[in-house]
Amino acid sequence: MRNADRRVVLFWQAVVGLLVLGLWQGLVSLKLLDPFFVSRPNDIVRRIGSWMSAGTLWGHLAITLEESVLGLVAGAALGIGSGFALARSPLLARVLDPYIRMLNAIPRVVLAPLFLLWFGLGIWSKVALAVTLVFFVMFFNTYQGVRDASQVLIDNVRMLGATERQLVRHVLVPSALTWIFSSLHTSLGFAVVGAVVGEYLGSTRGLGYVIAQAEGTFDTTGVFAGMTVLAVVVLIIGAGVTRLERWLLRWK
Amino acid sequence: MIELQLDRVSRDFDLPGGGTYRVLDDISVDVQAGAFVAIVGPSGCGKSTLLNVAAGLLPPTAGHVQSGGTPLAGLNRRATYLFQQDALLPWKNVRDNVALGLALAGVPRAGATARAADWLDRVGLTGFAAHYPGQLSGGMRKRVAMAQHWIIDRSLMLMDEPFSALDVHTRQRMETELLALWEGVDSSAAAAAAAAGARKTVLFVTHDLEEAIALADEVIVLSAGPASRIVARHPVTLDRPRDVMELRTLPAFIDLYRAVWSVLRAEVRKSQQNAQGRHA
Question: Which domain holds residue A8?
Fold first, then answer.
């Protein structure tokens, strides 16, 4: 994108954000909306500020991020590994196909209590929940990416003398990378969702816990403040992933 | 010495609704080491299948393939294969694409890079080493592909309509460059090697008869599919080194073109009638 275009887009993005916030604040000030139900932007900002200055935010944020990152890494490793294995072995893929579909059809929220039972109230039950969400996204994309690799490229590299392992390294992995990266953004969101839902349903720390506590006391400002922090953090990490992706796919 | 021998080779493909479809029928060819052989035929006659069998990418349904005097099992390790489609790895730059075969064989990086640079000079792409294939024109990508295959120095080069996607002028330039590489007129070392009988064997598939005659020592005509057979073999006795640009107006070239075209034309007609019959 040209720089001028980027500035125009940024400008309008700011306009949209300010419009929504201004409308929200205005409707509450005009008493058309009740702040008890929807809070108001300046209260939310003040609340986040007080969390930051009191230092309570960082501990909760760190826990949630730790769970998300562990879930993302483990889920991605398992998903990419299985995707490759099944894409290279059509027989195995056909045998496991119905089971993978069945597992993927389970709503993850119903697993949360089980994971609490198995892995306790600490971070591992949340990591497990994040893994179940990330795994399938990564698995399906890797599988598709490997199957999508061009037959001519494969034949050409084999004629040039590639072994099976070299074929994977020089053709299949780079070919699947495009798919894997396009799913990394989705996976990142899912990892955070897994961690927060896990915390929400049973924990003593983390942003999900903060939101659950606030809901328990009808503190809508606290709920919105927690959601805002989550959204901003995911946006920042997503920007990092985009930069990494641009570097790895620089040949495009 | 015979570089490649196809002995009564047939190849069938399974049809989606069951049954089989015969593409090649009872093909026998001996290709002498150092010869440049062109294969022409109407589209859909199994020219590419023939190359795939020679490359070891497809096993024959019946018959035998010998490469360098030994029966072929699996991929043909004496051959490289220049495909009709782009086959450069889009995520590797030009230098790494050219050096790929060396890297796969475990040649140390410094040596592989130096040899790749030498080949880029030879195909006229000095200064494009850091470009990615997506940044090059079609003709430049073909040059990179030629260097990629020539650098690993196999004795047999299989080429499947490598220049068919290029415009006429670029195609003639590429033909000239291919002949220069093969005839070894571009460097004294290669010329000496050619004199010693180390010239590569080329099996070149094309649907362009002019191209076939301009490049080859022998033109083989395949019949219209299905079940293609060899219908004619014409030796090309034009002098070498040849000037591809000038060749086409020589009386000897025109006579040969007429002779081969009279055979090929009948097969092209048949293939068109078959196609119409299928559509009706």
Answer: 1-33
